[in-house]
Design goal:
The protein has 336 residues and is an alpha/beta fold. The chain has 12 helices and 12 strands. Helix content is 38%, strand content 18%. The structure holds magnesium ion. Belongs to the mandelate racemase/muconate lactonizing enzyme family. MenC type 1 subfamily.
């Protein structure tokens, strides 16, 4: 069992009426398919200090959604801690494209300090060739792979040992124990490639469990699933591991919270996965696109009322989101 007694409570100090009166559910058209959809639905809520996002993925239940709502309340009603740095380096992402397309994908990002390469959607030789191509094109970039739990132990060992220049491998295998076993096997084989836990970190006790099991060298953290910037900060501190802040496919309103977290971490070793705004074809607010490979901390961008209206979901989806908001709020109140 992990000791979670020091984790900050969820934010539960705003009435449902106030949240609901200022909330609108919108659909963001995407340039690519993600989680089997080309429309990312999010709820944006205007709080007294700024706009906030509530966007748990559709299949997430009330307990999980309550943590996302805690982050919404922080963003719109409390604000974030002061930044410790004014630039947050971000990584480019290369999807599981054919090797010949890698150069064109990278060209879209401009200069970046790091590249995440998606793997485990093809055969291993193709995965290895794609990553080698990135290394060839950007020899100075930090390269990490993300398998989204898609490898077996043996496959992960084969790919990672074939790519000794990798900085880290993100969730090559599912779960915490398999990660720990893989990390130990790589160390025994003399590999210096680090292991990152992503899918294994979904709730507040997970980072502590990852650290306790020595399953990873770093953890991927997202603001909404961990209940807010302050809460995520305290969780990272208690886990005692390096962290990479990533988006949960947030709109640029939610990205501002991710940048606030990355800017407030006492130690930021790796570029963050916050350059996801390029995945959306349209956004109501100024998209959080990197300049010189970095994003700048600041308040959430303010949506344009006209675009907000254009992107507004139909009445049945508004009802569905408002019901979800009410359910998540109910859970927050019970836990408070
Ligand atoms: Mg990942």
């Amino acid at each position: 069992m992990v000791d979670n007694s020091h984790i900050l409570p969820l934010n539960a100090d705003v009435a449902l009426d106030e949240l609901a009166a200022n909330a609108v559910a919108i659909g963001l058209p995407m340039n690519t398919t993600f989680r089997n959809t080309t429309l990312r639905e999010v709820m944006l809520i205007k709080g007294p200090i700024g706009w906030a996002e509530f966007s748990p993925f559709p299949e997430y239940g009330p307990q999980e959604s309550a943590r996302w709502l805690s982050a919404t309340i922080e963003a719109g009603w409390h604000g974030w801690p002061e930044p410790l740095r004014n630039a947050v380096p971000v990584n480019a992402t290369v999807p599981a494209v054919p090797v010949d397309d890698v150069a064109a994908v990278l060209a879209r990002f401009g200069p970046v300090p790091a590249v995440k390469v998606k793997v485990a959607e093809d055969d291993l030789a193709t995965d290895i060739a794609r990553v080698q191509r990135v290394h060839e094109l950007l020899p100075d970039a930090d390269i990490r792979i993300d398998a989204n739990t898609g490898y077996t132990h043996e496959q992960a060992v084969e790919v990672i040992t074939a790519l000794p220049f990798l900085r880290y491998a993100e969730q090559p295998v599912p779960g915490i124990e398999p990660l720990a076993r893989l990390r130990a096997a790589l160390r025994a084989a003399g590999s210096s490639v680090l292991i990152a836990a992503d899918e294994a970190v979904r709730k507040e006790t997970d980072p502590l469990a990852v650290a306790q099991a020595e399953a990873a060298d770093l953890i991927v953290v997202k603001v909404q699933p961990l209940g807010g910037v302050r809460r995520a900060l305290s969780i990272v501190e208690q886990a005692g591991l390096d962290a990479v802040v990533s988006s949960a496919l947030d709109s640029s309103v939610g990205i501002a919270a991710g940048v606030a977290l990355a800017a407030a971490l006492p130690h930021l070793e790796h570029a963050c996965g916050l350059a996801t705004a390029a995945l959306f074809a349209t956004e109501p607010a100024t998209p959080a696109l990197p300049t010189n490979g970095a994003l700048t901390p600041g308040p959430a961008p303010v949506p344009d009322p006209e675009v907000l209206e254009q992107l507004k979901l139909p009445a049945d989806r508004q009802r569905w989101w408002h019901k979800r908001l009410a359910t998540a709020h109910g859970v927050l109140m019970q836990n408070a």
